[in-house]
Records
---
Amino acid sequence: MLSDAFSLGRIVNDGLIFKQNFSIRSYEVGADRTASIETLMNHLQETALNHVKTAGLMGDGFGATTEMSRRNLIWVVTKMQVLVEHYPTWGDVVEVDTWVAASGKNGMRRDWHVRDCQTGQTIMRASSVWVMMNKNTRRLSKIPEEVRAEIEPYFLERSAIIDEDSRKLPKLNDDTADYIRKGLTPRWGDLDVNQHVNNVKYIGWILESAPISILENHELASMTLEYRRECGRDSVLQSLTAVSTDSGETMVDSRGIECKHLLRLECGAEIVRGRTEWRPKHAELGEARSTPVENA
Amino acid sequence: MLSDAFSLGRIVNDGLIFKQNFSIRSYEVGADRTASIETLMNHLQETALNHVKTAGLMGDGFGATTEMSRRNLIWVVTKMQVLVEHYPTWGDVVEVDTWVAASGKNGMRRDWHVRDCQTGQTIMRASSVWVMMNKNTRRLSKIPEEVRAEIEPYFLERSAIIDEDSRKLPKLNDDTADYIRKGLTPRWGDLDVNQHVNNVKYIGWILESAPISILENHELASMTLEYRRECGRDSVLQSLTAVSTDSGETMVDSRGIECKHLLRLECGAEIVRGRTEWRPKHAELGEARSTPVENA
């Protein structure tokens, strides 16, 4: 069926790259008419799942293979790195390519390349690392041989689409954070099929503690997230942000801004550590330092 | 272009009905694997806008015609009625039909019929009433003759797809509400291009005060919303819900449940009044009273 063919994407390049187009919808854009980072991340999730599905590997889980489902194993993301070159607007069609590769002995890397369908211009690149967890014990697991046999034929030998950001992410606390937002709780609609909060939702919470002046005048240029622990439907979270400009001052101005983030439970347990970089809106990549703010 | 043709939909029936398909995406389904009501409502919004766009009527606003944009007029929704027969799941393709008609002297009705693309089965019917507001003064406006000339050729003479629910919606207060949720504030991502909260977001807030036992064990069967006042980015809202079962008892059981809702500002000003009806999950329409809860 034509509509299915378009909507579910297709496998290309000897079966190793999955490709899917998305039209940016009116409800996926924000106050500045461009797609939100959550929208772009949702498209990444959707292509990852459709890749597994289209390859015929899907068990009864959400992205788990047959052999994984048999062993109650699920994928969990431990690291996500994202570079956004520009944000698409309502009606734009974006083309997402995704593929997987080995990551160490017990991990899988998944990369994405998002382009403007009309111009071919890069919109976003992303790289992530996934490991296996037992759904019942919630403990991490090695990759069983039978699972490796399922997925290894799909590994594409290619270096990561983004150089790994190996700078240590600090653990923020009440003293080192500039902004703290408390009492964040999942809405009913934030829960996924495992009654857990989907990792894309965390991004909204992380940005909840960023000052509105940054969100208004800047756009997210890059993001590195380390997922430490899952959070459930009864969790109450705190979002911490520390802001620094290129000059080291903690002021919001027209230059590039770097933020550190921590999402933690009220008891202190860490959920996600993160780093975000921001450039003035409408500045092109690499010009962040010289372009004035247009959208004040 | 093929992808655009699919993603933007098409006009049929002598130009009076706009039709668009949507594939339900992984991030549009909730804990029970079915699409959320917000997802379905988002699809309605998207088709309404694409209808205006495809008809060549779009000015520089979000759904406003050229003559409306010239006069700083925008559409605002005053009433929305929705009946959901069943909820689609991830991968289902739904087909949305939408059309407009006159509503009184200064309003426009917009109806939607959503069907399963494979089976033709009705998923949802919805009917709404829209009036014009001046973007600067925020006061309601009559429909100017020039605007009427633009839109009237698109009016389809057909009775509303849902009989109007003309039962009065009560104004809940602290005494008549069973559940009150305070301190709701828009997230940055909730704002639309007018820096106002999109009317679909209100639904999430309304459901915030519904008890979790209803959300878990029941599904929304129908909803009537009356939009009274807009809310901006600095608004702090309270969500009130009163619950009654068919028997008049305020207990959550396996029978149908009716809720009344109010979304108000802290100062007491009303934003939305609403009524929702719920049926046990997996019950078919009309069997709500005899089917036990399966998803407890």
---
Amino acid sequence: MVAGRYVSSESRVFHAINAATGESLPGDFYPATEQDADDALKAAQGAFKEYRLVGNERRAAFLRAIAAEISALGAVLTERAVAESGLPEARISGETGRTTGQLNLFASLVEEGSWVDAVIDTAQPDRKPLARPDIRKMLNPVGPVVVFGASNFPLAFSVAGGDTASALAAGCPVIVKVHPAHPGTSALVGAAILKAAAATGMPEGVFSMLYDSGYSVGEVLVGHPLTKAVTFTGSYKGGMALAKLAAERSTPIPVFAEMGSINPVVLLPGSLQKRPHELASKYAASITLGAGQFCTNPGLLLGIKSEGLDSFISELSKLMSEIPSATMLTPGICKNYHTLSEEVLQEKGVSLFARSEKSGTAEFSQSAAILAGVTATEFISNPRLREEIFGPYSLLVLAEDEAELEQVVASLEGQLTVTIMGEEEELETYTDVIDSLSQITGRIILNGVPTGVEVCHAMQHGGPFPATNDSRFTSVGSDAVYRFVRPLAWQDWKNELLPPELQDGNPLAIWRKVNNNWTKD
Amino acid sequence: MVAGRYVSSESRVFHAINAATGESLPGDFYPATEQDADDALKAAQGAFKEYRLVGNERRAAFLRAIAAEISALGAVLTERAVAESGLPEARISGETGRTTGQLNLFASLVEEGSWVDAVIDTAQPDRKPLARPDIRKMLNPVGPVVVFGASNFPLAFSVAGGDTASALAAGCPVIVKVHPAHPGTSALVGAAILKAAAATGMPEGVFSMLYDSGYSVGEVLVGHPLTKAVTFTGSYKGGMALAKLAAERSTPIPVFAEMGSINPVVLLPGSLQKRPHELASKYAASITLGAGQFCTNPGLLLGIKSEGLDSFISELSKLMSEIPSATMLTPGICKNYHTLSEEVLQEKGVSLFARSEKSGTAEFSQSAAILAGVTATEFISNPRLREEIFGPYSLLVLAEDEAELEQVVASLEGQLTVTIMGEEEELETYTDVIDSLSQITGRIILNGVPTGVEVCHAMQHGGPFPATNDSRFTSVGSDAVYRFVRPLAWQDWKNELLPPELQDGNPLAIWRKVNNNWTKD
């Protein structure tokens, strides 16, 4: 779908697969060509000027219209997404709500208008030795953004997900590279965006969507001279490949790659002693939520050997072994999960604490939850144990004492999240560990679970490498918009020709930093 | 100077050169070794934990103490900097004031404390279907920063310049790679930082400074695993070489390279007709200020053919041919300037409007100001004419009409600044040109000159590639601090263990965005 038109230049066709049964689903999908990608980017660049100047109200109306069109799809969308992703209906309904919620959040952000970070330093004509000029700056959209759909969020991180919503909110046209695991879901959502664009009078090039069963279209999109930024949520390998492609361009552009992590959970002795069963039941649920297919899945549990830890392990093992098996997103992901988790169980010193039963006839699509254990010494010496295994798997590291716990922490790479489970009175004792953990993560949680990423202003979903390739930005929450902008300063400009955000009298009534104070005056 | 100690592991020695005479200046300087670089980074990493938690007051006191120690150097510093850079005494005095002013600005920023962008979304325990957690985030320093001293600002963009001041303000230790053109100036300033660190009780590793007459130490610093960010102001070639080195690391880090630009000035017909002499005198001064050795030097003037333009050219030619010659920063820069400007004059269609006389005996160090002219057609077809020539040179492009002027604008790459010289009543006619220009620049100036970059909150000194490699950040003004931080979110954290910036009751009384409203409450 290039700038409002459906094209099928390629004669090849691919089909969607029912994740649970492996059967083909209805619908023919055409891989895009290099020409399609070029057309989409030229149309996006053409639409950019009109779209970036369309005004806050109309841009917000467009975002709200997308949300409304997606809601209007109702059961048709849910059924298709369930079939393609293997995720249960309740999850897809929840994710649809999150998707429309994100679109409406960004619409509100645009309507309110303060997100542009307007900064005004007024002139001081009498300053000595030199007069100070009037300087005003605000954030401006960078241009066409390429969004890669993610396999694990067929709605909330796909065609009209957080990346698309935040890029459109910033004023950037979007070209989506559809994830081949949910082409039908994508077609429905893409059509919803098209209807919303037409209904709100947006330029056609503001949105395009390209299919590909392989990698070539993605490569063309990332290398295209008109592309100004790229977003990706997925594997380390995939993210790094895109970052490398971007680094080879003659004009550099940012790639925002969220590549997942193992999200360590530190279980402090007090909590293990006082409430091992509560912790176990919280974590059995978090590790296996959505078949463990979340970027924030807790893949690593750390504790100091104690009776409490023993009780926790025994309860968590019992609960995880009873977890019903679940359909994974694709047969490939399922196969990969089982291969990697079985390989880790063969690593030196790793023992199996629990493995759930697979159920159903379509075994190729079903995940078994796995809890493994290892000593701190073995964990520290084996980098392989620190790699993410995408699925309902967690590794429990047993430390002898606090010193060894600190060594484990020191061996960890960058993470999206880190969690501490502890009693209020023992936290002060572990401030050094907590401080070390804060240095390797984007979000640090107390007595919760890392799964369930709140979409709000204060959210940071992005941690030090290799969790992401740029820890300065977030892909969840309203600050995701800051990935697609750059500042522009206007010096001694004529007031009426300034953008309204920077004009005297503050006509949009936004928050602005005027001579270093935030004000709406 | 590694973490407070002077080391001279290398037996090689190099000397400073008097820019005007070519003679050696007193003082032996020792190139650093790979071991020195490693020691400096390990000391920086060791100091990081203490330094980032030192508190706003003490960090600000350190910055103010550096400023005071630099001021106390007085004439010793001025004389040495004049000798090494060839810049006149008034310029060096002014630059010293700017340097201490920057340090004090960042001290104020740190004391005031709001720069950390604290964002708080409070819990909603009763929200359905899921309770909303309490999430609070703020910016945190990334770790050791490597600063490359710039040749053209021996004080304000060197050892204790804007990069160092903003990195120290952010809470990051700094390792400076000294520019070999002003080693003695650097030694004086480095000693001032050392004294300030000792007087305010800072950890020794917070600052190190390494010499090298070549490139190898810089390469080691950029590639070192403990380096978290790099700043550079200089040539396109130098900046891109550092960016490439960083891209080859196994863990990516940002390089902030400000690589200069030609800073186009569009002369609108009304102003040319009404005040050609005023424009000419403004620009004769701006083009030749500091021997044209500013990143924001106006290297390109654009106008539509008219009587007014003819008057402007004739007056500007007269003024520029009368400009006294000036000592350039280094004999190499001077040679490069004359070679490149003479080569451009040989390009097809380029004519010489004015060339000033060289004076004095030391011709190798003296610049002649040059004004050249070319038609729009020739300019558009020859990319070489769009390259920066570092020195007192400007090229005037003559367009037939507004359409051709727009084509010239469309041929331009990213710029640090763009300037419009126009009468109030004619600006509305040129909104399309102005809009196009706004898309390729970091700062857009009306009826001024691009030289003279105000150090303030609203300044943006950083434009689209190739002016910089990352137009999202600025290297001048208080926002320069945002190059060295990343957000960290705290979820459901115990209030007393949060950083003070995020605690209930706002103990530091900073501006915070609480539930999407800026407040000091």
---
Amino acid sequence: MNNNLARVDGTRVLADLHALRAIGPYKTGVHKPTFSEPHLRSLQWLVQRLPEAGLAGEIDGIGNIVGTSTKPGPKLLAGSHLESQNHAGWLDGPLGVVYALEAARVINPDPNTSGAVEVASWCDEEGHFGHFLGSRSYVGGVTEADIDAARDRNNDRSMRDALRDAGLAGRARARYERGRHIGYLEAHIEQGETLESSDLKIGIVTSIVGIWQYRITFTGEQNHAGTTRMAVRRDAGLALARFCVDIDARFPAVCGPRTVWTTGRITLDPGAPSIIPGAAEMLFQIRDDDPGVIARLEDLLRSMAAEVDKQGTVVVERIRTGAPALMDVSFQQAIEQAGAACAGGRSLRMPSGAGHDAQILATVMPAGMLFVPSIGGISHHWTENTADADIITGAVVFVEACRTILTQRDSA
Amino acid sequence: MNNNLARVDGTRVLADLHALRAIGPYKTGVHKPTFSEPHLRSLQWLVQRLPEAGLAGEIDGIGNIVGTSTKPGPKLLAGSHLESQNHAGWLDGPLGVVYALEAARVINPDPNTSGAVEVASWCDEEGHFGHFLGSRSYVGGVTEADIDAARDRNNDRSMRDALRDAGLAGRARARYERGRHIGYLEAHIEQGETLESSDLKIGIVTSIVGIWQYRITFTGEQNHAGTTRMAVRRDAGLALARFCVDIDARFPAVCGPRTVWTTGRITLDPGAPSIIPGAAEMLFQIRDDDPGVIARLEDLLRSMAAEVDKQGTVVVERIRTGAPALMDVSFQQAIEQAGAACAGGRSLRMPSGAGHDAQILATVMPAGMLFVPSIGGISHHWTENTADADIITGAVVFVEACRTILTQRDSA
């Protein structure tokens, strides 16, 4: 095994990550919204790297890249994404793509390991246009009508226009072939502080939590901010603020140990300083890996809405339902073994609070995920980072886990 | 006196208001942002009406119209504005312009009344580009640099571009001539429910409240909404919601009897459903006609900010300071007399909670304001309305008050 480990080139892994960081830099992070120029350049960068790993691939009709191998034996699919949130970190996405590329570069030319790692970059994991459009397209979950309807939430550009501008209109979309892959493995930064605070190096993902999202709208009475006495106001914005504070007071008694909830966006209508808001809207999200917990919280949310209905009309509308995805047990074992051999056993089984393409791939094949520590637990911000040593340790464990999975399958 | 009253043509007043309503209609209201096509068309409509009242005037270099008379004797300036808030009511502004026009049509040709009413339409009272830019320009409070800097808050178009597109670039701006006018009178809908709820027909404005405006910013820690445990979050949006609720709980003990406060806009940064807001901002406004009350409330606001500073940084920044404006006592008496003669004495002295151009004119000449009832107290909304009979009563009282003011001055 030590012989194999020597073949992971940590310097090459870091160099690749820095090459991607240099495309669309923003402070110490990057700004690469889906189909932006730096995102497209990052995709071209990956296409040019594929031959180094004995792979062939192009950008497909939805911005995915799936590099395929002609090597005989089992195929393991591995990857992540190359676009970023706005003004966000350099590792969220690229880390998993570069690990996959490194695994392919190490394993595919190795005659002693049967089979190959195939490398994927899924488009729009960050949801500029929708939810996991790239990976969902690959598993057959995106229709042409879905693409017609998708628009960039940053600037309202249609996905069709973005694909046309990128020269991708009319290209075929890569599709999942039943039986081709023995599974999917993805690496990612943890995006939390569990590993760092326990001085651990590898997270073995047991499940990816589901995301339930709600649009909660408050209707009051729009009026003049100078002439309407306080006593007769029906201020939709104030009703919304009360609701946020009330959620924070009442959810803890009902939630599970790992439940999280977030109000990420608030809009007052019309949003002018001299007008009492007649309407207000909040985007509210709950995450858990237990649908039973979500059901209890949603009941609470709806009963809270009914309680405050005397102040104005409150409507709770569920706009996204996320089923939790379980990670394959044998993949978890392979990562744990690799962590024992290459990271001094400093690994931990944990759920993923964030959504990842692995949850989409898990609907059609066994899937697993590996986490590396995030400094300060920070992510979705340009200060996101991971220590170089941890990046290299993660790469070594990832490549070893790929080899273990391929070898077990070949001998099974 | 009855002889005079007969000369107000209620049908003509209503027809004029409906003509303006038909320019840029939105549901039962209008949508005429400053320098929009329907706003400009409304200004041209007024220019074409001026000769009916023996007045001459053009749109000036900032979008004001001041129609002047060559009739000997005292001159009373009267008017309001013709642009609207977005998707707002049909009377907010046009009522005061049409009353002024009607007063000029009745009084100016009348050889028995010395002097004339001159009609003004002030640009941008609604503040699409700034605060009272039109009336402030007239009294000498707007520099060329102020115009250079002004931008449309709806679409960020510069005022220079708007003036150029309207064909007004390079035109001179009408300026206040010291001694020309004996004062300024403006009519407006009440924008509250005080008159309606007491079955009164005329509001005699005693003062226009000052507006103090604050930008309150909260800094937390931007992080991933799925991976950051509730216990370690520093959610700037939640801190803002708590602050809003806290204001509502604590202001009533410190405010005056007519103080009003409003959070009209809330922005979470970055405003994405899967990101814990790292920053949040609210635009907060307080109105009162007593600067002492405002000082107490501002102290409370700052001490509240200091208290919650442990959750994150809170900055309270005053971005607008409004001095209350007192209305001229003899103008109040003239309106009261006219109300006694023509509205059965169903009038009430009251402060204006809303800002009006009269507060700007009051800095250079005696000023007065008359209110008519608002149905349901609604304003700044397309459902804003006033009963036809109340519109006509208001016009009769307004014209009579103009005549009284001119007559008193002429005989003084």
